[in-house]
Design brief:
Blueprint lengths: L2 H12 L3 E7 L3 H12 L6 E7 L6 H8 L4 E4 L5 H12 L4 E5 L3 E3 L3 H9 L5 E10 L5 E3 L2 E3 L5 E3 L14 E2 L7 E5 H7 L11 H11 L3 E12 L11 H18 L2 H24 L3 H16 L1 H13 L5 H6 L6 H12 L5
Parallel strand pairs: 1-2, 1-4, 2-3, 6-12
Antiparallel strand pairs: 4-11, 5-12, 6-7, 6-11, 8-9, 10-12
């Protein structure tokens, strides 16, 4: 064996083993490019796990026939992104897990850059990538900010890439579309909340990480290209509107301390009144109904939410006051300003 071969073997042994978990539902038209791009990464010590949420297209057969290295776990029903990811994580052998959307393609250094950051700091719960819209050049996600509405927004969404988005930094949350997490910490936090199905499950997990004394880091040198809205619809699709509304209310009631629960609800009521009125004016009756339906669902889930809240608050190590001083909670004025900006964008 040559010195070069010995060096390559040593480097491979030194690399932590990583499990890449992809949740799929009828995404056969996305999978080829996604999985091919993973095959092209420079990092070698990994496995790929595909969790299939009872697809009725040819996803499973396609992957079996074309990507034999991928481990497939077919489910008997659609468990959504949150629980689908948990199931994938339960089968993961890696020290670290990366959750990756099926409608993405990754850069050659995508995985190695995430590993390089997380492996040297045990206080990091998650690392997240810089995500571009699929065509490149326009930011989809450059870290995420958390608001007192219990939701989050993608920093840089819809903006041209620039030096502003090239600094590695702590952020409120990382997008679950490309998020690396320590398996130990993920299990300690209880994984994603399965009741979320999809939408803001990443905000919830990352906020619980902050509360528990960990941190979330944005890694701009890890690059992903994302077909935004291709899997779960755009910002005003029925599924997304209902899921985001319900889950942000869950976030407020589960994760916030009492003072911020009061603030969050007091902001939510007029915020939703304006939104509902706007949808009614534009004759979007279904969307207006779904916003109200989410409140009803939360009322029925109060006992369940209360039980989860007790556990989260019992294990709390960092107060909301400190998180606010750290900038983890975005000021309300800034959140409103961003909401107005997003509504003017074509990327909806």
């Amino acid at each position: 064996m040559s010195d070069t071969d010995i060096e390559k073997t040593y480097d491979s042994m030194a690399e932590p083993f990583v499990s890449i978990v992809i949740v799929n539902f009828n995404g056969v038209h996305h999978l080829s490019e996604c999985l091919r791009s993973i095959e092209g990464i420079e990092y070698q010590n990994y496995e790929v796990i595909l969790v299939d949420n009872a697809s009725h297209d040819d996803s499973i057969a396609f992957v079996k026939n074309n990507f034999s290295r991928v481990k497939i776990f077919p489910l008997n029903e659609n468990y959504g992104f949150a629980e689908g990811s948990n199931i994938g994580a339960s089968h993961a052998k890696g020290e670290y897990i990366v959750f990756l959307n099926n409608d993405t393609k990754v850069d050659t250094k995508w995985l190695s850059e995430l590993v390089e950051v997380i492996r040297h700091d045990d206080s990091i719960a998650t690392c997240g990538s810089k995500m571009f819209f699929y065509e490149g050049g326009i930011i989809n996600h450059a870290g995420g900010a958390i608001t007192l509405l219990g939701n989050g927004f993608d920093i840089g969404f819809g903006q041209m890439d620039s030096e502003e988005f090239n600094d590695q930094r702590t952020v409120g949350y990382n997008c679950g579309g490309s998020m690396m997490v320590s398996k130990t910490i993920f299990n300690r936090l209880g994984g994603f909340d399965p009741d979320y199905f999809a939408c803001f499950e990443d905000v919830d997990l990352c906020l619980r990480a902050w509360i528990s004394g960990y941190k979330n880091v944005y890694v701009p040198t890890s690059i992903v290209y994302h077909k935004y809205g291709a899997t779960f619809g755009n910002r005003y699709s029925a599924n997304r509107v209902y899921g985001c509304q319900k889950n942000r209310l869950f976030n407020i009631l589960k994760n916030f301390e009492l003072a911020n629960i009061v603030k969050g609800i007091c902001i939510s009521v007029p915020y939703d009144f304006v939104r509902i009125l706007s949808f009614l004016v534009h004759r979007e009756l279904k969307i207006a109904f779904l916003l109200l339906k989410a409140y009803v669902r939360v009322l029925f889930e109060l006992k369940n939410i209360s039980q989860k809240r007790k556990l989260i608050q019992k294990n709390r190590k960092v107060s909301d006051k400190i998180l606010t001083k750290m900038g983890i909670f975005t000021p309300t004025k800034e959140g409103i300003k961003e909401f107005i900006r997003l509504n003017r964008l074509k990327y909806n």
